[in-house]
Write a structure and sequence with these properties.
single chain, seven-stranded mixed β-sheet, 19 strands
Length: about 550
């Protein structure tokens, strides 16, 4: 059932060992691992197929900004060697084919109820189990609840007045129609210039009669310099793979040499390396020199380099000036990776509207009206991002011990021990939750680490006859404080980014991902010490029975 048509099925009821919410790369691997452990597992997925973010984000130009060879599961060498990526940065359809290939190869589909949204989860303290209900009337009781709900899975359209009055079509990049959209001959407005806007604008401009881009904040973007992958590229990858895995499983990704080493180099040497990295392309540009993310002077130099490139590329001086980011250090909002983004503004059918000068007043029946002008369009594309990292979890709003909602527990911002578990929500695990490297790392590698940690933890609990594990509130507080302290040593908190929750009105401003070193070791040490920082227990009913 992957053709978008809906289907009927009887509601699920009764007991399972584990429920996994979401069938993206996190959910799929978790289901596989828990089944291996001998558990009865049930997955739920709102879409009609696997793939998560790659299922929903089908906008033109959607691509991964991590090179494909690295954006692959590493837990099965045969899988890795059998799958042949065609390009350095795979496009969304290829990544989705990969997800489907994995689902078929490991026979995961029978474990997943598709087109089914989990609407509530509540912890039953007497039984140490979660009750999970869905929009199809399912009601399951599960010992373990794993939220593989993704970091960028709740698209957000800003509340611009008059949206509902618009007579043309509206789209959100994060929920793109599966049948695609033909913009031929159309006048299209694109609102938003984050990664999704920057990837889609060049593609839409190739097809549409005219594209008007509404930019509030200019973002830094580095060319992808995408190429087809040759056999030689793949051979190189395999040669370097052991070092890569050792680095990922060891200290993790770094940002190059230290700031002191950077400043010891001459400006010419620094410039030359920025040129080299720009030539290679991709987000690795930020690692050209150490200190880009921690030292404002080094950051300014890297940012100036990119601004200069924008000036050299974009012919119209006013447009070039508007495209040069000037309100955040480079890298503190997710750096974008593009194909022909800045070049696109040299096309006669593309206009940039600088919302810093003339903000949007309203959407009208015929288009978008700013304080400067009305723009008549046939379609509006919202590339306006997501309620990142917490939006999907808070929409489900699990009820923990004493019926306390996650919304209450996270009123001051998300708190999770190691980004894996939340105090007051026993037996619930988050895959790449807030407080873990997640969106600042290669998501696939981080997913694998969390899935394997959770599998080991559940295996340990079962071996020891334990039925309840809960993060200790103090251990959680300490971890959250550590995450904040580490972030404060970087330039990240200087940007009003979605990492900080700044794109959602009223969302607490907390830097959500963990940027520090040694995360994997910390998780491994916690497990090796018998799950230090967690309280482990036997089901109360068992204890009474035993007593
Ligand atoms: O969303 P964003 P995204 N009026 O939040 C603007 C991942 N991703 O979907 O900055 C006008 O970054 C907003 O302006 P401002 C990646 O991690 C990865 O593009 O708030 N504009 C901004 O320009 C990425 O970071 C890939 O001033 C409004 C834009 O909308 C994350 O997803 C590809 C507005 C939103 O940018 C999110 O990226 C795509 C308003 N009222 C995404 N409200 C790859 O792997 C918002 N905006 C390559």
């Amino acid at each position: 059932m992957a053709d978008g048509s809906s289907f009927e099925r009887a509601p699920l009821a009764g007991e399972v060992d584990a429920v996994v919410v979401g069938a993206g790369f996190g959910g799929m691997y978790m289901l596989h691992r828990l089944r291996e452990l001998g558990l009865k597992v049930q997955g739920f997925e709102a879409g009609d197929n696997v793939g998560g973010t790659w299922y929903w984000n089908r906008y033109p130009g959607a691509r991964c900004d991590v090179p494909s060879l690295f954006y692959s599961y590493t837990w099965d060498e045969d899988l890795q060697k059998d799958w042949r990526w065609s390009e350095k940065y795979a496009a969304q359809p290829e990544i989705l084919r990969y997800a489907n290939h994995v689902a078929d190869r490991f026979d995961l589909r029978p474990l997943i109820a598709f087109q089914t949204r989990v609407i509530s989860t509540a912890f039953d303290e007497a039984a140490d189990r979660w009750t999970v209900t869905t929009d199809r009337g399912d009601e399951l009781s599960a010992r373990w609840l794993i939220m593989a709900t993704g970091c960028l899975s709740t698209p957000r359209a800003p509340p611009i007045s008059g949206v509902e009055s618009f007579a043309g079509a509206t789209y959100h990049t994060g929920a793109w129609p599966h049948e695609g959209v033909d913009f031929s001959g159309k006048r299209v407005a694109v609102i938003g210039t984050g990664s999704s806007g920057i990837q889609s604008i060049p593609q839409i401009a190739r097809q549409a009669a005219h594209v008007t881009v509404f930019q509030r904040t200019a973002n830094f973007s580095v060319p992808a310099n995408n190429t087809p992958l040759s056999d030689a590229d793949i051979e190189e990858f395999w040669k370097a793979f052991p070092q890569y895995i050792a680095m990922v499983k060891g200290p993790g990704m770094g940002f190059g040499a230290s700031a002191a080493q950077t400043m010891a180099a001459t400006p010419e040497e620094r410039r030359q390396r920025y040129e080299e990295y720009w030539g290679v392309g991709g987000a690795g540009f930020l690692a050209a020199w150490g200190g880009v993310i921690t030292d404002i002077d080094i950051n300014n130099e890297a940012a100036d380099f990119v601004r200069e490139k924008i000036g050299e590329t974009v012919k119209d001086a006013k447009t070039a000036a508007a495209l040069k980011p000037n309100d955040h250090p480079i890298g503190t909002k997710r750096i974008c990776v593009d194909i022909d983004y800045y070049e696109t503004y040299n096309r006669p059918n593309v206009t940039l509207v600088n919302l810093k000068e003339t903000p949007i007043e309203a959407i009208t029946p015929t288009g978008v009206r700013t304080t400067g002008q009305a723009y008549d369009v046939d379609a509006i594309v919202f590339a306006t991002g997501f309620d990142a990292m917490t939006g999907t979890l808070l929409a489900i709003d699990p009820k923990g011990v004493g019926g306390r909602p996650l919304k209450a527990a996270w009123a001051e911002g998300p708190k999770a021990y190691l980004g894996l578990a939340v105090a007051g929500f026993p037996n619930m695990f988050l895959i790449t939750g807030p407080g873990s490297p997640s969106v600042l790392s290669n998501m696939i590698n981080s997913i694998e680490q969390h899935v394997e940690w959770i599998q080991d933890c559940i295996g340990y609990m079962r071996e020891h006859g334990l039925t309840r594990i809960e993060a200790d509130p103090q251990a959680q507080e300490d971890w959250v404080a550590h995450v904040r302290r580490v972030a404060d040593k970087t330039l990240f908190p200087r940007a009003a980014s979605w990492y900080m929750g700044a794109n959602i009105p009223g969302k607490p401003r907390v830097f959500m991902p963990y940027i520090g070193p040694g995360y994997r070791k910390k998780c491994a040490d916690v497990a090796a010490a018998g799950y230090e920082g967690f309280a482990l227990a036997k089901e109360q009913a068992d204890v009474h029975a035993a007593g």
